[in-house]
Amino acid sequence: MLETHTEEVARLRGCLNDLVGIMALPALWAGGEPQQIVATLLDALFGILQLAFVFVRLNDPDAGPWIEMMRGTELLESMHPAREFGVALDASLGDALLKWLPSARVSIGTEEFCVASARLGAHGEIGIVVAGCERPGFPEQTEKLLLQVAANQAAMGLQQARVLSAQKQVARELDQRVAQRTAELAKANEELRKEIIERRLTEEKLRHEERELERSEAFLAEAQQLARIGSFSWRVVNDEITWSEQLYRIFAFEPGLRITLERVATRIHPDDLHIMREMVDRVRRGAGDLEFEHRLLMPDGSVKYLHWLAHGTGEKNGGSVYTGAVQDVTQRRHAEEALAQARSELAHVTRVTSLGVLTASIAHEVSQPLAGIVTNASTCARMLASDPPNVEGARETVRRTIRDGNRASEVITRLRDLFRGKDLIVESVDLTETTREVIALTWSELQRNRVILRPELDGTLPPVLADRVQLQQVILNLLRNASDAMVDVEDRPRELLIRTEPDGDHHVRLSVKDVGVGFVPQDVDKLFEAFHTTKKEGMGIGLSVSRSIIERHNGRLWATRNDGPGATFSFSIPCGPAGMGGAGDPGMIRTAAGIDAHHVVKNL
Ligand code: ADP
Question: Relative to the CA of 530, which ligand 1 atom is closest?
Answer without folding.
Answer: 6
